[in-house]
Amino acid sequence: MNTTTNPAHLTRKPKILVARAIFPEALAKLEETFEVRSNQADKVFTPQELQNELATVEGALVTGSERIDAQALSQADQLKIVANISVGYNNFDIPAITAAGVMATNTPDVLTDTTADFGFALLMAAARRITESEHWVRAGKWDQWSIVNNPLGMDLNGSTLGIIGMGRIGKGIARRALGCGMNVIYHNRSRLPADEEKAYSATYVSKEDLLRTADHVILVLPYTAENHHTIGAKELGLMKPTAILVNIARGGIVDDAALAQALQNGTIFAAGLDVFEGEPKVHPELLKCSNIVLAPHIASATEKTRRAMVDLAIKNLTTALAGNKPPSLINAEAFKG
Ligand code: DGY
Known about the structure:
The chain is built from 12 helices and 13 strands.
């Protein structure tokens, strides 16, 4: 943990926390305006450490590894804003943050296409068994090539993709699916207006109909208590044995133990996962499955997009500490007027 201090004869700079490592240039820019407690060593804080850190600052840049709840905020008397470097904010207890009079922000829009690209990459990789094929090559099995003895996959072209969660990223996935010659069906908390459904050639269906009908399913919905285990054993049982399931949403939306069993039993064909229950731990039964493509929560991880996310989080933080409404304020209702 480094702390930069400014000479006493200068006006006091507001003190902020940067809870995980960020790009050095971004940190240097922050240090022009703020007294920064930074964590470039990138060691995840314990809940007690986070509570202690938040007790001394007016603003904090945080990520999904920092749970901001009543305990974390219990001594944060000067805190005005927690700026998440992430569009998802299930690490935020919004009622507790609002009750503490703190603004909460996230980073929408800047990662939409990068994340949609990755969701599609996982779908393609799982459908065409790219990880297994690579292992096949590395294991020196290429001389066993034959028409029937390759890792045979599933086609995406001409198939139906079921998208659960039709927000910005879900729509990005739909655009890519159309370009790939797929039909799109979707399920969402609320149905899209007719003109949007037309633009994405997307048909609204119930979750059960989607699971029964779709050739492949991708999850792009936010994690909430109601969405916990949206996909469990029952739902996996509704899917086609030839289906691929992709989760780029959040761990906890899928029951990972049930998924591992479904992959092992052939209930579904394959999965592509970027997020896991209890990550960074991965369910040991998932690790045993070869019909799965695993990634360490990197859907937004291109240099351009991660920089854009950090920049937007900094904009949110600096705007709030200047006394103005930050561009991506989540708990806007509480700060009206
Ligand atoms: C997000 O922004 O919610 C992503 O999951 C982070 O990569």
